[in-house]
Structures are given as structure tokens and as C-alpha cells.
Automatic annotation (TrEMBL):
<dbReference type="Pfam" id="PF01494">
    <property type="entry name" value="FAD_binding_3"/>
</dbReference>
<dbReference type="InterPro" id="IPR036188">
    <property type="entry name" value="FAD/NAD-bd_sf"/>
</dbReference>
<dbReference type="InterPro" id="IPR050631">
    <property type="entry name" value="PheA/TfdB_FAD_monoxygenase"/>
</dbReference>
<feature type="domain" description="FAD-binding">
    <location>
        <begin position="24"/>
        <end position="367"/>
    </location>
</feature>
<dbReference type="InterPro" id="IPR002938">
    <property type="entry name" value="FAD-bd"/>
</dbReference>
<protein>
    <submittedName>
        <fullName>2-polyprenyl-6-methoxyphenol hydroxylase</fullName>
    </submittedName>
</protein>
<dbReference type="GO" id="GO:0016491">
    <property type="term" value="F:oxidoreductase activity"/>
</dbReference>
<keyword id="KW-0560">Oxidoreductase</keyword>
<dbReference type="GO" id="GO:0071949">
    <property type="term" value="F:FAD binding"/>
</dbReference>
């Protein structure tokens, strides 16, 4: 790719693969939004936490970058807003569908309650780098990159740590014991699998191909989604370039690829003629695209003794409304609020872990229900996908009835059962956590 950000790779003290301890209080597998925020919160509460991340850096091309009002609120509660605002980002106050008959507004954030009336597109690697840099200010926090969790350590039916393998430097293996292990390792969670937990799959009617194109003078001024018969084509304004999404009926990526990249270019040029001047240069092969197999699933039970799953490891979300990061962050906040005191006491019971799931289960269920409803309206039922033909009637009605539009905008930006950081648990006032010896 010739457009887009330069790789971000900071080789500082917190990124070493050396000096992995043998024990800690909390071991978090995976440093995505869920793992990074939970690590930060626990470290600020004085709990020893080790985060293991299998990749060498946070570069995630074509990942979720939507930071909604609920996440900005969490950052404000952590006194991190000033630093967050310095990250490269594009803010928007509305989301619209561009149809042949004009624009249809699907989200208007200008009348949201609370402090934030916008959403922000922030490259995920910038956000993760920022969060972990802040976490590393606390001596309780350690992030070890290029360390992949490959299994669990179990004793008497309880998880007591993880087995890991370094993905660099000879691939040595080891064990890390912890009072609590958290699976924050995403939608294909190895920890979840090792624990014998499998999510209920709800299916999805579509998959997504991501690509980037340079922006030029005269282009539309903000993000939008183009709807043409047969295709929904979201276009995210990333400042210097467009991040585009090409939705297709599930299971059709092979036939799309068989038709050749020229067919994709022609389809995009037909739908958005202003792009025609740059498609040949920027979309030269399928290597210039990224494929997302859309999945919607959820664990029935998010925990086992000694183990908690959060974020995508507990529930993979549909890309509808771009709320995956926000739900992951809300899970992390709920987990920290519920678990700091038990962790300080040195004993986390299944009941404590159940409190986290009870707090987050309903928001997850309702969000997935709404996402699946929108998916069905736009693309047909899972297993029986139909290409979108026009703006579904319920969305058209919603866009024209201000109270409904406000409700849907609030659902996207703030979600159901908004979590707030319990700041009384953070800071030097907290008693030091007891690390396992
Ligand atoms: C292509 C794509 C586009 C998306 N678009 C959006 C969007 O626009 N808006 C939005 O809000 N959401 C979007 N999402 C969803 C969003 O990215 C996720 O919901 C969110 O990142 C979940 O956070 P998480 O921390 O639970 O998991 P992840 O972000 O998946 O993080 C998991 C981390 O664990 C690491 N890991 C995995 N396995 C191991 C292991 N065995 N050992 C150690 N580390 C491991 C991974 O490297 C990763 O860093 C998108 C997702 C994808 C894949």
C-alpha cells in the first residue's frame, strides 16, 4: 500500500520480551482495546498486571477505529482526555447513507446527553499505544509483546495461569501463574478454546472487504456510506485517505476474487464515480484489501474459576454501528469495578466473575439483537443473504422521526447500561495488591 499511516513501532522498556515474571496477580491475554483498558485500570488501582500480546506491534490494518462518546467518557474519567485529543483523529457528528435519491441520516450525535456530541475515528494502533503508554506509568503494569498464550495452567478445576510461547527469539515457552486470568484475545480466542468454552454462533448474512484510497480535492467532506442496488459501501474519512468497506453476501468472497480485481475497481467506480481517477493505482491486487469474515456470537458463560472472558473473546459483534471497541472498553471498566476489591483481598470467586457477566450480558444481548435486525433489513437473513436494494423502510422511518433518530444515535454512541470508572478504587489511596508468590 502506498497510502495510509507509517508503521508505528516503539521499542521502549515496556515492549521487551525479557523478564517475564513467573507469577502475577492478573494475567491478561491480548492487548486489544479490552486488554489495554483493563490493564490500565488495574495498574492504576495498584494491582500487579501482566498483559501478553502475541504481536510485535499494534499495527492492525483495517480494524475497528470507532471511538464513541461512551469511550471518550471513560477516558475523561481517567483524566486522559487531553492526551487522547492529541491523537490523530477525525471527528464527525452524524452518519449518513448516500443513495441515488440523496442522503439519509442514520445517526445524529449533536443532541447526545453528556459531555461528548460526536464520534471519533482514531487508528486503533494509536489508541492502544496511548493507553499502554499511560498504563506503563504505573510500576504495577507490564506489557510483554511477542508472547503468545498457547494454553492454560489448571489446578483442581480452576485456571491458575497460562502457558505461553515467545513468537520471536527462538520461541521459548513458559508458564505465568496468576490469581486471575483474563481472556481478552479477541474473536478467535485461544484462551477460550483452551478453557473448553465455545460461543453460540448467530450467523451473519454478509462479509466485508476493506481497502484504502487516497483522498483528493473535491471529494466529499466527511464519512458516508454509499448504497447502490446490491452493495453497501461505507467510506470512512481518515484525514489523508479513505478507508472503504465493500460488503458482500456471506460466502461470496471466492467468486469476487475469481472475477479479478478489475471487476472490484469497476464496481466501485460505478457506485462512486469520483474515485475512478485513483482506483488503478491504489487497488492493484487483492493484497491491497483486507477480508473480514463477519461473525456474531456470544458465550453463554463468560467465566470459569480463575478465568474471565471479555471483549470479542466473550462476544464477537457485527460491524453494524461500529460498536465493537466500545463494548470491549465497557467490559473492561465493568470488570475493573467489580474485581479490584476481590483482587486486593487476594481471592476472586466465581461469584465475583459472575457479577461482571451479569453487568455486561444485557447490553451485549440487546446490541447484538439490534445489529442482527439491521443486518436482516439490509442483507437478508443469515444463510439466505440478499443484496441490499434500497434503504429499508424501518431505517427510512427512523431517519425522519427525530425521537427515533435520537434513540438510535444514543444506542450507537453510548449504548445500553453505560459504565463509569469507579475512581474511588484507583490511585494511591488503594491498598497495594497482593501478588502471588
Ligand atoms: C476488520 C475489522 C473491522 C472492524 N471495524 C470496527 C469498527 O469500525 N468499529 C468498531 O468499534 N469495531 C470494529 N471492529 C471490531 C473491533 O475491532 C473489535 O470489536 C475490538 O477490537 C475488540 O476488542 P478486543 O480487545 O476484545 O479484541 P481485539 O481487538 O481482537 O484484540 C485482541 C488482541 O489479542 C491478541 N491476541 C490474540 N490471540 C492471542 C494470544 N493467543 N496470545 C496473546 N495475544 C493474543 C491480538 O493480537 C490482539 O491484539 C472491527 C473488527 C475487524 C476485524
Amino acid at each position: 500500500m502506498t497510502v495510509g499511516p507509517a508503521p508505528l513501532w516503539k521499542d521502549d522498556a515496556m515492549t521487551t520480551t525479557q523478564d517475564l515474571p513467573a507469577t502475577t496477580t492478573v494475567c491478561i491475554a491480548g492487548c486489544g482495546p479490552a486488554g489495554a483498558v483493563l490493564g490500565l485500570l488495574l495498574a492504576r488501582a495498584g494491582i500487579d498486571v501482566v498483559v501478553l500480546e502475541k504481536h510485535a506491534d499494534f499495527l492492525r490494518d483495517f480494524r475497528g477505529d470507532t471511538v464513541h462518546a461512551s469511550t471518550m467518557q471513560v477516558l475523561a474519567e481517567l483524566d486522559l482526555l487531553e492526551g487522547f485529543e492529541e491523537l490523530p483523529q477525525q471527528r464527525t457528528t452524524s452518519i449518513s447513507l448516500m443513495t441515488d435519491d440523496g442522503f439519509v441520516t442514520l445517526g445524529d450525535f449533536t443532541r447526545l446527553p453528556g459531555r461528548f456530541q460526536c464520534l471519533s475515528m482514531v487508528p486503533q494502533y494509536e489508541l492502544l499505544d496511548f493507553l499502554t503508554t499511560e498504563a506503563a506509568r504505573s510500576s504495577s503494569f507490564a506489557l510483554h509483546r511477542q508472547v503468545e498464550v498457547v494454553g492454560l495452567v489448571e489446578e483442581d478445576g480452576a485456571v491458575t495461569g497460562v502457558r505461553y510461547r515467545r513468537t520471536a527469539g527462538g520461541g521459548s515457552e513458559g508458564e505465568l501463574r496468576a490469581l486471575l486470568t483474563v481472556a481478552a484475545d479477541g474473536r478467535s480466542s485461544a484462551v477460550r478454546r483452551a478453557a473448553g468454552m465455545s460461543p453460540v454462533e448467530f450467523g451473519a448474512p454478509m462479509d466485508v472487504l476493506w481497502y484504502r484510497l487516497p483522498k483528493r480535492a473535491g471529494d466529499p467532506g466527511a464519512s458516508f456510506a454509499r448504497l447502490v442496488p446490491g452493495r453497501l459501501l461505507p467510506m470512512i474519512d481518515r484525514g489523508g485517505y479513505w478507508q472503504g468497506a465493500y460488503t458482500m453476501p456471506k460466502g461470496t468472497v471466492a467468486s469476487l476474487r475469481a472475477a479479478g480485481i478489475e471487476a472490484l475497481r469497476a464496481d466501485l467506480a460505478r457506485a462512486m464515480p469520483f474515485l475512478a481517477d485513483r482506483l488503478d493505482g491504489a487497488l492493484r491486487s487483492w493484497d491491497d484489501t483486507g477480508f473480514l469474515e463477519v461473525r456474531v456470537n456470544r458465550l453463554r458463560r463468560w467465566y470459569r474459576p480463575g478465568l474471565l472472558c471479555i471483549g470479542d473473546a466473550a462476544h464477537a459483534m457485527s460491524p453494524v454501528a461500529g460498536v465493537g471497541i466500545n463494548l470491549a472498553v465497557q467490559d473492561a471498566v465493568a470488570a475493573a469495578n467489580a474485581l479490584v476489591l476481590p483482587l486486593r483481598r487476594g481471592a476472586v470467586t466465581p461469584r465475583d466473575l459472575r457479577r461482571v457477566q451479569r453487568r455486561r450480558d444485557l447490553p451485549t444481548r440487546v446490541t447484538q439483537l439490534v445489529q442482527r435486525g439491521v443486518q436482516r433489513q439490509m442483507f437478508g437473513a443469515a444463510g439466505d443473504p440478499v443484496p441490499p436494494r434500497g434503504v429499508p423502510v424501518p431505517l427510512r422511518v427512523m431517519s425522519r422521526v427525530p425521537p427515533l433518530l435520537r434513540l438510535f444515535s444514543r444506542f450507537m454512541a453510548i449504548g445500553i447500561r453505560n459504565e463509569h470508572v469507579d475512581v474511588t478504587l484507583l490511585g494511591p489511596a488503594g491498598a497495594p495488591a497482593r501478588a502471588l508468590r
